[in-house]
Sequence to fold (79 residues):
Amino acid sequence: MTHAERHIVEAYSNIFEGLSSISKLELLEKLAQSIRKDSKSKEKEFFKSFGAFASDKSAEDIAKEIKESRKFREKDLKL
Fold:
């Protein structure tokens, strides 16, 4: 455990001291569930949270498609 992790654990344990026994048990249950989660599902959730998408196209093809779809218009700015 790194020094930073140890500090985080200490900070959280100080917060937990004020919780009731039932709240602490519920917290333990949620921590146990998070440990049991499959790393694949965590990876999917991570990419899903950033709007990632799967595509068979290469990055160059996607960039080219985006650039070709751009439309510009001229607009006079009144200053």
